[in-house]
Amino acid sequence: MNAGPLQQRRLSDDIVDRLEAMILEGSLQAGERLPAERALAEEFGVSRPSVREAIQKLAARGLLSSRHGGGTYVTDALGAAFRDPLLDLLEKHPESQRDLLEFRHTLEGACAYYAARRATEPDRERLTAAFDRLVAVYAGEQRGGRAEEGDADARFHLAIAEASHNAVLLHTIRSLFDLLKRNVVTNIGGMYPKSSEVRGMLMRQHTDLYRAIIEGRAEDARNCACDHLDYVQQVLAEAQLEETRVARARRRQALA
């Protein structure tokens, strides 16, 4: 058998692997600036030329890019399928809001399940911080209206995705973040006029979800996430039916 000689691995390839892992796990996010070559060299215990070579390899593959004024950044194109103009197109069609809720049902149920099973102490700390902010926004301690609530809600769900330690789930949620935030804001606008109890119910559902993850109850966490989205769909459907009835009654009144 002649398998041929083994090729010696370059040090820059090891650095590429480290940087790829940081992008994949979310330690380096889309649009984030990399530390300077000197800092990376010190952190990895390698020479600056090796770091520079690794950066050039990742740039050639489209994972990193240089910007005017200096600096190397993780490309903004990560997850670009759910950025403008598709985001605007989805937002303008009401049926797409239902489609997104159905998609979230599958996605966030899985995120909650794995977060409950895999969350580390730093994950729980980040999740707690996101939950505390959500509580403060819902309680009116932070002003900003629906937009602030939408942002806090979306970041809470993003923290759950991070705690899932599933790279595909995390990057899907991250790529959908703006769309998710707008969907939450739209839902809030459609739900709150329906009943004064809705706001309290949403907060109780978020609390149950948070506790299930913190306590490591994976199946309960999945069920809490799915029940929450089922409730949102139900309330929105009822609100839309009410709007239809009111519009019909007004047309009849105008013809009387």
Automatic annotation (TrEMBL):
Pfam families: FCD, GntR. GO terms for molecular function: DNA binding; DNA-binding transcription factor activity. Keywords: DNA-binding, Repressor, Transcription, Transcription regulation. Signal peptide: none annotated. The keyword Transcription regulation applies. Residues 9-77 form the HTH gntR-type domain. SUPFAM superfamilies: GntR ligand-binding domain-like, Winged helix' DNA-binding domain. It comes from the Bacteria. InterPro entries: GntR_C, TF_FadR/GntR_C, Tscrpt_reg_HTH_GntR, WH-like_DNA-bd_sf, WH_DNA-bd_sf. Transcriptional repressor for the pyruvate dehydrogenase complex genes aceEF and lpd. This is Pyruvate dehydrogenase complex repressor. It comes from Parazoarcus communis SWub3 = DSM 12120. The lineage of its organism: Bacteria, Pseudomonadati, Pseudomonadota, Betaproteobacteria, Rhodocyclales.
